[in-house]
């Protein structure tokens, strides 16, 4: 009986989260508490299922980025590059695309677009062109770039933690295909938006008039932030070798930066997105209940029957399935549920052998975020910015770009996966 | 503060057969006050006498309100006295006395007390001759519910000649009005002068500074800003309804106290509120500046 109740609660919660009618964090926490109240999972067990590595990695990265943000460095870089492009809108578009992708790989997607989207709109307004191309390329860049690293996108954080994959593992295995995709997409976007942006010489001169050096108000804060952030990235690179979890590195970085930046710790901690963190906690408990009641086991057995434990076959299906599924609904709950399934497969096939399945899940879930305007939180944020700037990105008009481009990116990734691992 | 809370049974002299003139009355009253508050009875008596020299008027119902003032005394004490028979007092004869002891400086509360007592006397003239027990007079004072330091109401300090705009007004006209009247805030009203919201200079600046800009750390790298430059051209194309903030919070009822007004302004960091009557009709605007000029530096 309990597996049925657990599955029912989970599915109902999932439907409510997908419908976006009620705040998803509230739904996840309510689902989790129902699992506890109906004795489907004991509190001790439930808390064990909360992946603290993920939780603390998220919190610490948020702290680090929130402090870095205050230096103005990200906007500085964007303006600097726009000036290097001499106000040429196509060059600016490509630069914004790459910057967003690179920032997304090392910050989180949401922060990246929150930083870059306002600058893009400003640039577009000064150039007297529609900000639409700049904003659309950013959506794709954030999801593609985020795929590249362990910390780039929440699905990767969860996968890395659950599968014991390091920062470097992600960079080596997913990094190359992300780089390929970035180059292809940059070329595609030049082709797509060709002829749509014309700019007067006078307006180009306006961009050249920007004095980006004024943006850096606190040089000392910037120096210290950059040193500590560089230390964190180096820490991530070697965390697999020195036997430290990624969260340990991130917590240390956050603690160092809080002390040496001189910012108000209370204020910074208030800026952490506790709603997002709570969403993860709720999900982990709900998925934990599915694991404990054997629901996951049941599904994974079915899955193994279907795939006959064939890793190659599973990975091939995984990339398409997770890609399409993540386009339609939030990829975070999907990945949270899929992780224990893949782990079960791993107990049969061996931990090493199933690595390609993890990469397939990562690529599918992250790139799938491009599929629709609601495929990833960053997309929604960019859409909101577009609306604020007076140029609405419609759900359907976005599909016109997103469906072919997402399927294309999944196809390229699929080919990469096959060529590299099988 | 209620007048009835300033009097007490302990400070009452009722049908004392020894009191046959004002001299004895003041002595008894001074004794009582001295006993209750530990003050010098001679000084009190002296104060009552000093004032008596200047003459007193007896009010209807054979009542009188004598008082005395002493130095270095920050209080107000009221003794209620009734003599068995009317005694000669000032320009007539009285048998009910409200004897007030107050300070040399604090006249405000004294005057309000006298006004309150006169109010009670005038409303209960026919009651006084038939009062038998001291409880009855306490009852009368309690029922009349006189308040001494009644707070100033918002309606007393607000600006009544309020200028409103309607949702259909052009922003350019609103800006002109702001310049003309040297104001940066107007309530937005419907055709019946009912409150819809407010528009201030900062709201209008939304046109020049679109919201996406506020996600940026600073704009110090800019010398020019397109949206700012376009502001002048756009001014007349925007209507109040396009940008004004619909609101139900930045208001205060005209009968609210200025204590509440100050609290709201301080707590919400607002500078002005629109004043509404009970039917939500706009009757004025009020600001922190009104509190400053009409209360603190009145």
Pattern of helices and strands of chain B: EHHEEEEHHHHEEHHHHEEHEEH
Note the total helix count of chain B: 12
**SS-derived structural category of chain A:** mainly alpha
Task: Specify the helix fraction band of chain B.
Answer: 25-40%
Low-pLDDT ranges of chain A: none
Q: What is the N-to-C order of secondary-structure elements of chain A (H for helix, E for strand)?
A: HHHHHHHHHHHHHHHHHHHHHH
* Major beta sheet summary of chain B: 5 strands, mixed
The shape of chain A is globular
- In percent terms, what proportion of residues of chain B is strand? 15-25%
- Distance linking N and C termini of chain B: 22 Å
User: Which stretches of chain B are poorly predicted, pLDDT < 50 over at least 5 residues?
Assistant: none
Oligomer: heterodimer
Name of the level-1 CATH class of the largest domain in chain B: Alpha Beta
Average pLDDT score of chain A = 92
Distance between the termini of chain A: 42 Å
Helix content of chain A: over 70%
- Gross CATH architecture of the largest domain in chain B: Roll
Report the strand count of chain B. 11
Number of helices of chain A: 22
Can you tag this structure with a few keywords?
heterodimer, A: 422 residues, mainly alpha, 78% helix, 0% strand, globular, B: 298 residues, alpha/beta, Mannitol-specific EII, Chain A, CBS-domain, 2 domains, 5-stranded mixed sheet, 3-stranded antiparallel sheet, 11 strands, 36% helix, elongated
Summary of the model, kept short:
The complex is a heterodimer of chains A (422) and B (298). Chain A is mainly alpha-helical and 422 residues long. Chain A has helices at 2-19, 24-37, 43-48, 52-69, 73-84, 89-106, 109-127, 132-146, 154-163, 167-173, 175-193, 201-208, 219-238, 246-261, 265-271, 274-292, 295-307, 311-328, 331-349, 355-368, 377-388, 395-421.
């Amino acid at each position: 009986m309990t597996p049925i109740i657990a599955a029912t609660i989970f599915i109902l919660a999932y439907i409510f989260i997908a419908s976006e009618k009620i705040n998803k964090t509230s739904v996840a926490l309510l689902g989790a508490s129902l699992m506890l109240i109906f004795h489907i999972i004991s509190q001790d067990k439930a808390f064990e299922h909360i992946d603290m590595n993920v939780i603390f990695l998220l919190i610490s990265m948020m702290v680090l980025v929130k402090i870095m943000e205050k230096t103005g460095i990200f906007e500085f870089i964007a303006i600097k590059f726009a000036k290097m492009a001499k106000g040429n809108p196509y060059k600016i578009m490509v630069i914004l695309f790459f910057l967003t992708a690179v920032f997304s790989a090392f910050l989180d997607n949401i922060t990246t677009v929150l930083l870059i989207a306002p600058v893009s709109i400003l640039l577009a307004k000064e150039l007297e062109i529609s900000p639409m191309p700049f904003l659309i390329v950013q959506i794709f860049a954030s999801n593609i770039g985020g795929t590249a690293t362990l910390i780039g996108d929440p699905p990767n954080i969860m996968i890395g933690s659950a599968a014991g994959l390091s920062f470097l593992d992600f960079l080596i295995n997913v990094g190359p295909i992300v780089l390929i995709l970035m180059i292809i997409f940059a070329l595609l976007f030049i082709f797509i938006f060709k002829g749509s942006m014309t700019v007067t010489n006078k307006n180009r001169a306006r961009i050249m008039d920007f004095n980006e050096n004024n943006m850096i108000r606190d040089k000392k804060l910037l120096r210290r932030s950059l040193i500590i952030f560089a230390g964190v990235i180096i820490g991530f690179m070697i965390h697999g070798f020195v036997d430290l979890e990624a969260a340990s590195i991130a917590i240390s970085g956050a603690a160092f930066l809080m002390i040496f930046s001189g910012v108000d710790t209370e204020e910074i901690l208030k800026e952490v997105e506790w709603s997002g963190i709570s969403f993860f906690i709720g999900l982990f408990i709900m998925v934990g209940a599915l694991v404990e009641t054997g629901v996951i086991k049941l599904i994974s057995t079915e899955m193994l029957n279907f795939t006959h434990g064939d890793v190659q076959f599973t990975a091939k299906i995984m990339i398409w399935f997770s890609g399409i599924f993540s386009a339609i609904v939030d990829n975070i709950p999907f990945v949270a549920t899929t992780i224990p399934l893949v782990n079960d497969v791993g107990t049969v096939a061996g931990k090493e052998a199933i690595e390609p399945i993890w990469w397939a899940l990562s690529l599918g879930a992250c790139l799938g975020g491009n599929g629709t305007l609601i495929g990833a939180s960053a997309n929604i944020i960019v859409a909101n910015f577009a609306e604020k700037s007076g140029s609405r990105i419609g759900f359907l008009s976005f599909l016109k770009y997103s469906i072919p481009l997402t399927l294309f990116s999944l196809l390229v990734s699929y080919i990469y996966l096959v060529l590299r691992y099988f | 503060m209620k007048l009835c809370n300033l009097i007490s049974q302990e400070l009452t002299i009722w049908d004392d057969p020894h009191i046959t003139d004002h001299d004895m009355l003041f002595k008894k009253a001074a004794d009582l006050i001295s006993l209750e508050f530990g003050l010098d009875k001679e000084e009190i008596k002296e104060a009552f006498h000093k004032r008596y020299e200047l003459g007193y008027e007896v009010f209807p119902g054979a009542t009188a309100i004598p008082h005395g003032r002493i130095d270095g005394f920050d209080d107000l004490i009221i003794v209620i006295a009734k003599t068995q028979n009317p005694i000669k007092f000032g320009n007539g004869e009285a048998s009910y006395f409200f004897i007030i002891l107050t300070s040399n400086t604090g006249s405000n509360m004294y005057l309000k007390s006298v006004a309150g007592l006169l109010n009670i006397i005038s409303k209960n003239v026919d009651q006084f001759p038939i009062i038998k027990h001291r409880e009855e007079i306490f009852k009368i004072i309690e029922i009349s519910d006189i308040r001494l330091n009644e707070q100033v109401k918002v309606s007393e300090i607000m600006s009544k000649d309020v200028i409103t705009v309607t949702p259909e007004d052009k922003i350019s006209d609103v800006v002109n009005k702001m310049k003309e009247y040297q104001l940066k805030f107007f309530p937005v009203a419907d055709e019946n002068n009912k409150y819809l919201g407010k528009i201030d200079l900062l709201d209008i600046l939304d046109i020049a500074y679109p919201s996406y800009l506020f996600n940026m750390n600073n704009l110090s790298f800019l010398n020019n800003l397109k949206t700012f430059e376009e502001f002048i051209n756009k001014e007349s194309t925007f209507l109040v309804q396009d940008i004004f903030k619909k609101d139900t919070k930045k208001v205060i009822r005209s009968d609210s106290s200025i204590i509440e007004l100050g609290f709201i302004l301080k707590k919400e960091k607002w500078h002005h509120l629109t004043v509404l009557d009970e039917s939500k009709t706009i009757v004025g605007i009020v600001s922190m500046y009104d509190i400053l000029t009409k209360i603190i530096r009145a």
